[in-house]
Amino acid sequence: MKVTLKIWRQENARSKGSFQTYELDGVSVEMSFLEMLDSLNTKLIKEGKEPVAFDHDCREGICGSCGMYINGHPHGPATGITTCHLSMRYFKDGDTITVEPWRAKAFPVIKDLIIDRNALDKIQIAGGFISVNVGSAAESHAMPVKKNNSDDAFDSAICIGCGACVAACKNASAALFVSAKISQFALLPQGRVEAKERVRAMVAKMDEVGFGNCSNTGACEAECPKHIKLVNIARMNREFYKAY
Amino acid sequence: MKHVLFASISKKFVMALAGLFLLTFLPVHLGINFMLLNSDPEPFNEAAHFMATFPPVKIVEIILIAAILIHIIYGLIIQIQNWIARPVGYRSGEKAETSFFSKFMIWTGGTIFIFLLIHFFNFYFVKLGLVQGDPENFYDMAHQLFRITGYNIFYLICFILLGFHLYHAFGSAFQTLGLNHRIWTPVIKVLSVIYAILIPAGFASIPIIIWLF
Ligand code: SF4
Ligand code: FES
Description:
The complex is a heterodimer.
Chain A: E1 3-9, E2 18-24, H1 33-46, E3 69-70, E4 73-74, E5 96-100, E6 109-111, E7 114-115, H2 118-127, H3 137-142, H4 147-157, H5 164-168, H6 175-186, H7 189-192, H8 195-208, H9 219-223, H10 231-243
Parallel strand pairs in A: 1-5
Antiparallel strand pairs in A: 1-2, 3-4, 3-5, 6-7
Chain B: H1 2-6, H2 8-34, H3 42-53, H4 55-84, H5 105-127, H6 138-145, H7 149-176, H8 184-212
The complex binds iron/sulfur cluster and FE2/S2 (inorganic) cluster.
């Protein structure tokens, strides 16, 4: 099939950037969105033009680096998947597809579709870890954890830090990401030891690096490729109140 | 410790508490307003007099004004920070799914604020003696206002927008306070729809009835 691509091109963080239009023929429905961009880049290189810069690594939905805003949706029109898992089946022959980077003050554009997601790492570094000795695997088995808690902790832990929640949020708030990272520890006994320090440090860092305030609009939950739930944000708020 | 005063969650916490307090006040005000439909002005004027003079009510009144101011100031700070958090918007249109009414909180809130200012000039400031008028006869003053077509149209628009504001506010306040529950959150959602329709509809019905009959 043939698609028209309107892609955001921007030299670096300081330059202005604009949409460029490309026609791409020979796109097959089996291609992933990234493979489609690969074939565009091959074409551009052959024509002696600068290829489109986009971030990617695992191409299997776990590294969280492939985020881009496609036709008004982070990770494209399909729900519950990342851009690398998005197949061209979701598009029709003759479609115009608009692609631009995540837009947030905390996510400056590096080049074209690549943004700097370091702000999320900074929040993780502030408290998204356990520094107490939790023992060996055998010892963790000896520690009883409620089934519901372990399930919920796992559901929170599958956040891949892609930043789609920030991208989707009208306030560019990172509340869903931070709440998932806080919840995955808050629900387990190993994480309780440093729960207060963690929530204080991570929320402080979240505010400091320039994300907006959550206004409970729910766009994050709707667009999260890992279906991270809004209950995490309520839990983060509770943890925050308990910590002061 | 310093961070807690300025933290995003703290601001939202204060806003939610102030907002919830305001939610409890609306039905009380509405109850008194319904007395405007009585052809006898006495009950309404008495109720207004009681609200203006009974000491415990005076204390609640101070809390109420404080809650309004805090809610507005924090709302503005949060909104401005949120605008700053996305200096460059999406060019291909923001289509990410959100709860519809949550997008306009600052605008619906702003309209309600303008309404409140006018309302204060018409009544509250009269009561405080800041604006001329007879604080013992709010009944007639209200009836006169409700005979002005332009005022009624403005009044109706404000209360429709109040409904939009309340619809998101109600559930959002609970979520902010950390109260999200498998069973109770859907119940709160339903209650917020009922509240957001009934309260504004109640207020709006009064000028409509006075206007028509
Ligand atoms: S919460 Fe979802 S959208 Fe946000 S960073 Fe994690 S996986 Fe991505
Ligand atoms: S490339 Fe790793 S999640 Fe898409």
